[in-house]
TrEMBL record:
<feature type="binding site">
    <location>
        <position position="131"/>
    </location>
    <ligand>
        <name>substrate</name>
    </ligand>
</feature>
<keyword id="KW-0664">Pyridoxine biosynthesis</keyword>
<dbReference type="Pfam" id="PF04166">
    <property type="entry name" value="PdxA"/>
</dbReference>
<feature type="binding site">
    <location>
        <position position="276"/>
    </location>
    <ligand>
        <name>substrate</name>
    </ligand>
</feature>
<keyword id="KW-0963">Cytoplasm</keyword>
<comment type="subunit">
    <text>Homodimer.</text>
</comment>
<comment type="pathway">
    <text>Cofactor biosynthesis; pyridoxine 5'-phosphate biosynthesis; pyridoxine 5'-phosphate from D-erythrose 4-phosphate: step 4/5.</text>
</comment>
<keyword id="KW-0479">Metal-binding</keyword>
<keyword id="KW-0560">Oxidoreductase</keyword>
<feature type="binding site">
    <location>
        <position position="267"/>
    </location>
    <ligand>
        <name>substrate</name>
    </ligand>
</feature>
<feature type="binding site">
    <location>
        <position position="259"/>
    </location>
    <ligand>
        <name>a divalent metal cation</name>
    </ligand>
</feature>
<feature type="binding site">
    <location>
        <position position="160"/>
    </location>
    <ligand>
        <name>a divalent metal cation</name>
    </ligand>
</feature>
<feature type="binding site">
    <location>
        <position position="285"/>
    </location>
    <ligand>
        <name>substrate</name>
    </ligand>
</feature>
<protein>
    <recommendedName>
        <fullName>4-hydroxythreonine-4-phosphate dehydrogenase</fullName>
        <ecNumber>1.1.1.262</ecNumber>
    </recommendedName>
</protein>
<dbReference type="InterPro" id="IPR005255">
    <property type="entry name" value="PdxA_fam"/>
</dbReference>
<comment type="similarity">
    <text>Belongs to the PdxA family.</text>
</comment>
<keyword id="KW-0460">Magnesium</keyword>
Length: 319
């Protein structure tokens, strides 16, 4: 079976968060559009479920209920309260989803949100986040987090570190790697020569050295070297003028220097519909651009928009 015809694997994430709820809602809204199956505890899910034994059964099960490779997680789900006792099973669900995708039994992987503290408390989870764990499972050293919606793609060059650590964490080698992985991934998605806009680190991109010298000392020379190689890259640009409508027409992806510089614009433009995409893995991985949302878990207020967008993007990328 061609990969694009295979179902998408979904790891359930933190059971006490909104993951089970948005996955169930996605089946209600998408049955007949995108075939997918869930690895998790069937008792945690809402609505009709169909227990399957292999991903190949997912397409046939979709019209009847949410296909589930059901795995016993132990204690009952308590929405809104982190449950470290589920940690080992949550991790195993991710591992199984990755293995199935890498073996070619699933077209792509879409992950529901995890709660890192619960995983650490319950199973000694040693990774900063989902992305780093997936890189470990795939056996790759360097991956890139891209956030995407129809109007914008952004990549943070540094992710979950304190702002005070950003200037030292940014290096010419690391930033070059981020740019190359992004460029190659977008080429794989059909852009012949992706147009990259690189944000400056400092306000006004350093304003000629008056507000910081990183742009002058090494970021601008790096951009010049990459342009000489043929990459369509411009910058470093003042971040405060990069994201209005007219500016966004001039590039395909914006590479930003730190977490909030990238995530604030995309969450402002499309708060509910943004998708997290991991570039550099040997398979397609998407996820909703939000967390476990314990404060609304179990209340019926969970919005599946981002998760649905993640499934759709996984399907498009797998094609």
């Amino acid at each position: 079976m061609p990969r694009a015809d295979l179902p998408i694997a979904v790891s359930i994430g933190e059971p006490a968060g909104i993951g089970p709820e948005i996955v169930s809602q996605a089946w209600e809204r998408m049955s007949g559009e995108v075939d997918f199956f869930v690895i998790g505890d069937a008792s945690h899910l809402n609505g009709p479920v169909v227990r399957i034994s292999h991903p190949a059964e997912a397409a046939g099960a979709m019209p009847r209920g949410l296909p589930v490779l059901s795995r016993e997680f132990g204690p009952a789900r308590m929405p809104g309260t982190a449950q470290p006792e589920h940690a080992t099973h949550t991790i195993r669900a991710i591992e199984e989803a990755v293995a199935l995708t890498m073996r070619g039994e699933a077209a792509a992987l879409t992950t529901a949100p995890i709660h890192k503290k619960a995983l650490k408390d319950g199973a000694g989870f040693a990774y900063p986040g989902h992305t780093e764990f997936l890189a470990h499972l795939a056996g790759v050293d360097d991956v890139v987090m891209m956030l995407a919606c129809p109007e914008l793609r952004v990549v943070p060059a540094t992710i979950h570190i304190p702002l005070a650590d950003v200037p030292t964490a940014l290096t010419r080698k690391g930033l070059t790697q981020t740019i190359r992985i992004t460029w190659e991934a977008l080429r794989d998605q059909g852009l012949a020569n992706p147009r990259i806009a690189l944000a400056g680190l400092n306000p006004h991109a350093g304003e000629g050295g008056a507000m910081g010298r990183e742009e002058l000392d090494w970021i601008a020379p790096l951009v010049a070297d990459l342009r000489a190689e043929g990459l369509a890259i411009k910058g470093p640009l003042p971040a405060d003028t990069m994201f209005h409508t007219k500016a966004r027409e001039g590039y395909d992806v914006a590479i930003c220097m730190y977490h909030d510089q990238a995530l604030i614009p995309i969450k402002t433009i499309d708060f509910a519909g943004g998708v997290n995409v991991t570039l550099g893995l040997p398979f397609v991985r998407t996820s909703p651009d939000h967390g476990t949302a314990f404060d609304i878990a179990g209340t019926g207020r969970a919005d599946p928009t981002s998760f649905i967008a993640a499934l759709r993007m996984a399907r498009e990328m797998s094609r």
